[in-house]
Amino acid sequence: MSSSLNSRIVDLVAPRARQRPEPEAAAISAGRRAFVLALAGLPFASLANTDPTAGLRRWGNGEFRRFGFLVYEATLWAGDDPQRPPLVLRLDYKRTIAGSAIAEASVKEMRKFGSDEATLQRWGERMSKLFPNVREGDHILGVYRPEGAAFLFNGRVLGDIAEPAFASQFFAIWLDPRTSAPELRAALLRRPAG
């Protein structure tokens, strides 16, 4: 019997017989996972050492209020088109808010832009892991690139979601005509003087 036939028989009869022992397989799997995550983050790795707004113009800024209370001030940096990447949105918080509440509110707003519930749930879980609790004086920077979105908290890299569809819908919360805050959108899209 040929060696390849023996291999196929072993795979059919005892498929686990050819697998590595569990501890070794887990170590290799963890190593591969770390390597893939590192590769996925390469487009955003430079954020830790540079100003994400470099090369962009400061556009507009405005306030987001809920029930009359100031929640955050927002400022937009972009190129010639403030609705297309690359762009940076900075939110300067004026209230204490749980990171999970930021993620929930983001999913609620993104729902109007057409993603299915399974995708929104996955994005919500990822944002819940990324977004920290904030208090007055903290800021989060969202960096929108064609390959996805990265986030910084008080200048420290939080992580990224390297999915173009996520980035498009996340930044649509502020920039899409269907936003729930049209006054803030208008203020952000105000063309800079000069």
- The tally of domains stands at 2
Strand content: 15-25%
* Strand segment tally: 6
According to CATH, the fold-level topology of the largest domain is Chalcone isomerase
Query: Which of globular, elongated, flat, extended, rod-shaped describes the shape?
Result: globular
Chain-averaged pLDDT:
82
H/E series, N to C? HHEEEHHEEEHH
Structural commentary:
The N terminus is likely disordered. This protein is of the alpha+beta class. It contains six helices and six strands; from the N terminus they run H-H-E-E-E-H-H-E-E-E-H-H.
Short description:
This protein has six helices and six strands; from the N terminus they run H-H-E-E-E-H-H-E-E-E-H-H.
Task: Describe this protein with a few key phrases.
194 residues, alpha+beta, 2 domains
Topology of this structure?
Elements: H1 3-13, H2 22-45, E1 57-66, E2 69-78, E3 87-93, H3 99-110, H4 117-130, E4 139-145, E5 148-153, E6 156-161, H5 164-175, H6 182-188
Antiparallel strand pairs: 1-2, 2-3, 3-4, 4-5, 5-6
Helix pairs in contact: 3-4, 3-5
